[in-house]
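Worked example

This section walks through a single chain of length 110. The input is the sequence exactly as stored; nothing has been trimmed or padded.
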Amino acid sequence: RASHEAIIRRAEDGERESLIADAEATDRKLHEAIIDHLDNDIISKAFRVNWIKIKLIRRNETRLYAELVIPVFRDHLKVIEAIERKDPDAAVAAMTAHIESSRARAVEMN
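Given that input, the structure is written out below as tokens.
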């Protein structure tokens, strides 16, 4: 949570220098934490391989741009908050909303 809140503050303050690299690293850590929590080594490894392949093949379409940092990280905070409350329905709803908005952004870029 704290790392997401710090990234949002930096974005709101207009930082650009290292924001994107830090935001992308934080984004990846959250996704990996959620996947790893499934406690399934095959899924964890497949996720990491696919993440790398997608980043290499579709770098421009999957890059986290400065204008996306705040909305994406607010989506992430909704997921984190639901997990902290131990509210699986809210977590599923927040993850679904995040996936749908990510998919919509990807479709717009093509």
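What to look for: Helices lie at 2-12, 19-36, 41-57, 59-62, 66-84, 88-109.
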